[in-house]
Amino acid sequence: MANYFDLLTVAQKNNIGVIIHDLRSKGVNNMYAEAGVLSVVSKESLFIPKFEKGYQNTANDRIRSIFGKYVSGLSEEELTALKADEVAFFNKVYGGRYGNGPDEGWKFRGGGLNQITFKNNYALASIDTGVDLIKNPERINEMPIAAGALRGYFVRSFTKAPKDILLHYSTSGLNDFKSLDDAVKAIYHANAGWGKTYAALEADKTGGRKKALERAPGFLEIVKKTL
Q1: Contact at 8 Å (CB) between 4 and 215?
Q2: What per-residue confidence (pLDDT) applies to 205?
Q3: CB-hemisphere CA count at 13 Å for 17?
Q4: How far is the CA of 206 from the CAs of 65, 111, 114, 203, 214, in angstroms?
Q5: Dmax of the chain from CA atoms?
Q6: What is the pTM of this model?
Q7: Bridge partners (DSSP) listed for residue 111
Q8: How far apart are CA 108 and CA 117, in angstroms?
Q9: Which of 108, 112, 99, 135 is nearest to 22 (CA)?
Q10: Which of 68, 62, 111, 109 is nearest to 90 (CA)?
Q11: Averaged pLDDT, groups of 10, the chain, 227 residues long
């Protein structure tokens, strides 16, 4: 049976190369960090930058576990009707948060290689890439813009990371990882948000963290070949 890496397309492989080049061009040269970023991107977008998909086919219980209080006041019938309308759904769960206006949840839903979400983060990604992603949010799904937004997100996240969290992952920053396991877990944590608890990450029911850890050794080999 073909493994994950055997099934990668030419476009996916090319985008991996773009990501590695962008990271190194801006000083991210720790091989474990580079492999960790690739591992997380493999889970988030399969290396094809895209907007967050709708939740029409997601069970209501799962939606409630993801979005919590933002849908807690809805009955089963109301939630079922809401999730059928992508624009209304994202405006409901993301509207009025982190710089979004009430009707901007759809506009600034998860996008790019690692599903950057919210207007405030799109504004920061605009600085990282030199592209106005507030006026043109769809451009976060263009390469190499997506790679610049990805790199900027993680560089900024680790610059601002709480010291106790960095200590938990035995690092002082993005360029200081000494093991692949620590790098993948820390980068996955950064992508989910530092506010997530270790317990919540360990209990991840989507399997995303597990997939990232399983794929990481293969990405490390790819990184080493480009050194």
Answers
A1: yes
A2: 67
A3: 9
A4: 11, 19, 16, 9, 14
A5: 54
A6: 0.94
A7: 116
A8: 6
A9: 112
A10: 109
A11: 84 98 98 98 97 97 95 97 98 98 98 98 98 98 98 98 97 98 98 94 85 96 94
Rounded Cα gap, residues 151 and 19, in angstroms: 8
Give the model's pLDDT for residue 2. 62
C-alpha torsion sign, points 96, 97, 98, 100? negative
Task: Locate 26 and state its tokens.
Answer: 């801006």
- Distance separating alpha carbons of residues 37 and 180, to the nearest angstrom: 11
Residue 160 buriedness (CB in 10 A; 0-12 / 13-18 / 19+): exposed
User: Any residues with CB less than 8 A from the CB of 186 and at least 6 apart, and which?
Assistant: 36, 158, 165, 166, 169, 171, 177
pLDDT of residue 124: 98
Contact assessment for residue 137 and residue 111, using Cβ atoms and an 8 Å cutoff = yes
Tell me the one-letter amino acid at 2. Answer: A
Which distant-in-sequence residues (6+ apart) come within 8 Å of 75 by Cβ? none
Q: Show the tokens assigned to 42.
A: 């493999």
